[in-house]
From TrEMBL:
Keywords, comma-separated and alphabetical: Ribonucleoprotein, Ribosomal protein
GO CC field: ribosome
Species annotation: Anaeramoeba flamelloides
Pfam hit, one: Ribosomal_L36e
Family per record: Belongs to the eukaryotic ribosomal protein eL36 family.
The keyword Ribonucleoprotein appears for this protein: yes
Protein's UniProt name: 60S ribosomal protein L36
Transmembrane region(s): none
PANTHER family tied to this protein: 60S RIBOSOMAL PROTEIN L36 (PTHR10114)
């Protein structure tokens, strides 16, 4: 009995291309426009060590806990990158 052939094409490559384009555009927009005022405030909270307070603040602005956690993690990464860049100089 011959091995089964795949009936449909894999969509991994197509989705990967879309994702990389999306990430590129978001990074470009972030570079040009910067942070929104609520993001700046949340970054300050994270710098001071108020992670839970920053989460509550983001939740208020974004509406759901899941979105707030994602945003806080994203901003925490940015704060960490800023710290490492300042240490390198």
């Amino acid at each position: 009995m011959p091995p089964k052939t795949q009936k449909r094409k894999k969509k991994i490559n197509k989705n990967f291309r879309k994702r990389t384009k999306r990430v590129f555009v978001r990074n470009l927009i972030r570079e040009v426009a910067g942070f929104s005022p609520y993001e700046k405030r949340a970054i300050e909270m994270l710098k001071l060590g108020y992670e839970k307070r920053a989460l509550r603040f983001c939740k208020r602005r974004l509406g759901t806990q899941k979105r707030a956690r994602k945003k806080r993690d994203e901003l925490a990464k940015i704060v960490q990158q800023m710290k490492t860049q300042s240490l390198e100089k």
